[in-house]
Amino acid sequence: MREDSLVVKIKEYLSARNIVFILAIAVALLMAYLPIKVLYSSNKSEYYSHIVLIPFVSIYLIYIKHKEIFAQINYSFVAGIPILILSIFLFLGGIMWGTSFDKNNYASLIFFSIFIFINGAFILLYGPQAYRSALFPFLFLIFIVPIPTALMDNIIYFLQVGSTEFTNLLFLASGVPFMRDGFVFQLPNVSVEIAKQCSGIRSSMAIFIVAILAGYMFLKSYWKIIFLVICAVLIAMLKNGIRILTLSLMGNYVDQRILSSSLHREGGTPFFILALLLLAPILFFLRRSENRNSTNY
């Protein structure tokens, strides 16, 4: 009996529909090879270390909901084919005119076409109802798309300003004598500038993605998910302010060489963990309030 059920499952997994979708994913991977190579040779490659993890998260999210997602499937050529055609036009446009873009924008356009292609292939092969059930896992794939350069510059500036303001508040709370001139803090023995490189863009993006994922998995109310994400952004800037304050005080009172050491350049992991620890109780209370409300009803 077990062998029979195993054979049935294997036949289900190896259905023509699934095989075609696997082939579509293989095509998407081939489409992604060149832009990945270009992206990781650009000066913004350090911002996108998370990209390789995103598809695995989406696969896991589909797996835990696979019974609901695949409960009712059907081909949907009317909805799927136009989306696939759009993705192909975007991809060909990127190939033809990509030389006029910088490496980041070129990769952004190509990856966006791949994102559209994967979504379109699923809709065509499994239908709108299955896609609605799998909407979040497939929309989550948007995080494989590099942020266009102009938007990225604005995000970095926003984080730079926010981190500066939090740093200013932390300096005031610490009682350390300092003077501020824009992004520059003058301490008794050192001068610290919060440059674009100090915006914490990598960890902030990671915290943002974690907050969205946690909200989807543990919260039901959309406004509470939005609140969690806003808190995550503020915590990311607070975390950056704490890091800047810590390094500044160490540079001022311990050793100025700390400000140019590997601790400054690569020591963000403990502060990233701190940000997650600050975010955890907010998620806990939001989830608890939902459970309390459902119990009342």
Any chance you could write out the topology, listing elements then pairs?
Layout: H1 2-13, H2 16-39, H3 54-64, H4 66-69, H5 77-97, H6 103-133, H7 135-139, H8 149-174, E1 179-181, E2 184-186, E3 191-193, H9 201-218, H10 222-253, H11 262-266, H12 269-296
Antiparallel strand pairs: 1-2, 2-3
Helix pairs in contact: 2-6, 5-6, 8-10, 9-10, 9-12, 10-12
Describe what you observe in this structure.
The protein is mostly helical and about 300 residues long. It has 12 helices and 3 strands. It has helices at about 1-15, 15-40, 55-65, 65-70, 75-95, 105-135, 135-140, 150-175, 200-220, 220-255, 260-265, 270-295; strands at about 180, 185, 190-195. The model has no long low-confidence stretch (mean pLDDT about 85).
Low-confidence stretches: none
Q: Could you tell me the mean pLDDT?
A: 85
Order of strands in the sheet with the most strands? 1-2-3
State which percent range the strand residues make up: under 5%
- What is the first-to-last residue Cα distance? 44 Å
Residues in helix, %: over 70%
Oligomer: single chain
What descriptive keywords fit this protein?
globular; three-stranded antiparallel sheet; mainly alpha; 12 helices; 3% strand; 297 residues
Summarize the structure.
By secondary structure, the chain is mainly α. Helices cover 73% and strands 3% of the residues. The protein is globular.
